[in-house]
């Protein structure tokens, strides 16, 4: 018997999936994911994968005075 539990959260890229038995899961990472900083740990049968993201540099805003 396979039991599945899902949870999605919007703000923090938080996702929970639970199932028993063998499984394989693939997902796309955002372009700004720091691939060399990805961490994974397992505790009490729960796999936690942490994918840090690089900050998106916001464009500089500069006021320009117009003469004439």
From TrEMBL:
| SUPFAM superfamilies linked | HSP20-like chaperones
Asked whether the keyword Magnesium is assigned, the reply is no
Q: What range(s) does the SHSP domain occupy? A: 1-68
Which Pfam families does the annotation name?
HSP20 (PF00011)
Q: Which InterPro entries match?
A: A-crystallin/Hsp20_dom, HSP20-like_chaperone, Small_HSP
Q: Which UniProt keywords apply?
A: Stress response
What are the boundaries of the region Disordered? 1-20
Which PROSITE patterns does the UniProt record give? SHSP
The record ties this protein, via PANTHER family, to: HEAT-SHOCK PROTEIN 20 FAMILY MEMBER
User: Into which family does the record put it?
Assistant: Belongs to the small heat shock protein (HSP20) family.
Question: What protein name is recorded for this chain?
Answer: Small heat shock protein HSP
Q: What is the lineage of its organism?
A: Eukaryota, Viridiplantae, Streptophyta, Embryophyta, Tracheophyta
């Amino acid at each position: 018997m396979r039991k599945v539990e899902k949870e999605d959260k919007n703000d923090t890229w938080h996702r929970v999936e639970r199932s028993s038995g063998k499984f394989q899961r693939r997902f796309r990472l955002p372009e700004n994911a720091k691939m060399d900083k990805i961490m994974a740990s397992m505790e009490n049968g729960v796999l936690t994968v942490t994918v840090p993201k690089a900050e998106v540099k916001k464009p500089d805003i500069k006021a320009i005075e117009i003469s004439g």
